[in-house]
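Data deposition worksheet. Section B asks for the primary sequence of the deposited chain exactly as it was used as input, without tags or linkers unless they were present during the calculation. Section C holds the resulting structure in token form. Section D is free text for depositor observations; keep each observation to a single sentence. Incomplete worksheets are returned to the depositor.
Section A, Depositor: J.P.
Section B:
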Amino acid sequence: MLVTTKDMFRKSREEGFAIGAFNVNNMEIIQAIVDAAAEAKSPVILQASSSAIKYARINYLMKMIEAAVEEHPEVPIAIHLDHGPDFETAKMCIDNGFTSVMIDGSKYDFEQNIELTKKVVEYAHSKGVVVEAELGKLAGIEDDVKVSASDAIYTDPVQAQEFVERTGCDSLAIAIGTSHGAYKFKGEAKLRFDILQEIKQRIPNTPIVLHGASTVIPELVEICNKYGGDIPGAKGVPDEMLKQASTLGVSKINVDTDLRLSMTAGIRKVFAEEPSAFDPRKYLTPARELIKETVKHKMVKVFGSANKI
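Section C:
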């Protein structure tokens, strides 16, 4: 069933688990994610960035997601815009049936971020759509989002409270040490759970979101590299830290890099082992299965969202 994230997040806060928000670009990825959610009996958020929408085209994305909803009516599914860059993109998604949008004003100063977020909130709420905003800057690269390590800024808990009160946003993405892409940490992984806990104390009824939270699963990196890839030194957020975040009040955890690695590993393996293969079904089928396994693992073992529908 197609839903907003409001009921999902209320249940997640009450029962201490997180909901995975998985980035989608094509049919195989959508099928894999929703099949995993059905098997795990987990709610799920399908999210698309503005660059994914440009690639897949919004009508195609929506029709494929509608098919997934019809195939698995028992699974609560939200459609979310990830890192909406401006009001126009958010409005386009709202008008095309998205149940949730993110407006990312974190590149602006505090007052400009508030102004942009308020504008999106007013329009979205008039259409029954919920809004995620962001405060603080995550390092790394993901699609059109590029922030250097020197420009990354932790979220200030006092500002977070003021921001939510003034914008009326429904959920807030915060920066506590995660980052975008496959190279999240040069040294030991570390998240500022103290900042998370203070923010939760100040805005206990606002769902908290973690971006840049792929594990960068070592086994997938190894498969990619074994079969011709070149992804040296990739490192993500360990499962144990994400599990801790889930129990400490994070309601939504974003995953993109791990899906990309899953698909690439599956395809590379087929091409290396069967050089004569040229039927897309031959290499996209194992890639889809690997994505499903990755998503299901996160739902069951990490986020705690299995058996929550």
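Section D:
Residues 280-303 form the longest helix (24 residues).
Residues 216 and 258 are 5 Å apart (CA to CA).
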